[in-house]
Structures are given as C-alpha cells and as structure tokens.
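May I ask you to comment on the folded chain given beneath this request?
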Amino acid sequence: MSDDDVRVTALCGSLRDGSHTRTALERALAAAEGAGASTELLDLRGYELPVFDADRDREDAGDAATLAARVRDADTVLLGSPMYHGSYSSPLKTALDYCGFDEFEDTTVGLLAVSGGAFPVTALEHMRSVCRALNAWEIPHEAAIPNAGDAFDGGEFVDPKLATRVETLGRRAVQYATIEPDPDSFESDQNVGAEGK
C-alpha cells in the first residue's frame, strides 16, 4: 500500500462549536493529507448515537452502524478528546462502545487529548487502555494540548512547537498505517463487549 492509498479518519470527542479538539484534529488531518493520505473527520455532532445498550443491535441504534462502518474503513484512526474529570469525553466513549474488534483490531490508532488546565495525561492513558483492549496498534507519538484556552488564537496554534507535535501525529498516522501489529494483548481475551453490538 502506498501513502496515496492510506485513509486516515479522525473521531472528535467534543461537541462544542468552538472545539479546540476539533481544531487540533483538523491540523493533524491536514498533515496526514500533506503526507499523501486521504482523510475524514467524523464529527460526532452530526451523528445520532444513543447511550450504548448491549441489548440493542447496532443497526437499531441511530447512526451507530454508519459510524462503525466509517471507522472500519480507515487504515489509521485518530482519537481526539477533551479531558473531562481526568478522562476522555462521554460522546467519544459512546462512539467507541458501538465499535469493536471489527473496527479496531490491527488498526493503527493515534491519540490526541486537550485540557483547559494541566497536561491531559489521564485522558490519553484511558484512551490507550481502550485501544489495547481492542488490539489496536497505538502510535508511540501522541499529542497533548494543555491550557487549551491559551493555545490557540483565531484557530491557529500560538506555540509552533505544539503545532509541530500535532502535525507529527498526522504524519505518523500515514507512516505507521501498515505496520505489522504486535500479538494480541492479554486484555483483549476478556473483552467480550467488543464484538460490535
């Protein structure tokens, strides 16, 4: 597969109109496009996703089946979220609950988290745990954007080093899209909820 065949899809876990998470993901996708990939931003504001219920089939849960199919078609998935209460957002959690091994196993995943205060380390850790449970391959480079209110001015990064960090994530999304994944994690053996209800 050449870089021109790579498809990078970003899943934005923020519903805010002026979302810094969405702005950062768009910057990462632009870098991926610059590296030769085709890209898509899945903006959860445009999807009807009821709270996950394991007794309801995905096809009967609003736009869940459509969202899962778009994630499944990606070679690399970028997960982006604001940090809420030390973790990632509930819209992203709901979207991921409607996905499973079919969407993420052996798929390259990049992580991006944004916070209004200090580094969003725990949000990144929690997203990383989900990726391990789904046997995804996580890009070692991840993007953390602290103090997001001061990090942007007119939709542009104030700090060029921060912009480089996010752009690097986009380029790595293309570079590692076809990497041979590691053996399954021990967590995935117990992940009975990942069958894609």
Observations:
- The chain is about 35% helix and 20% strand.
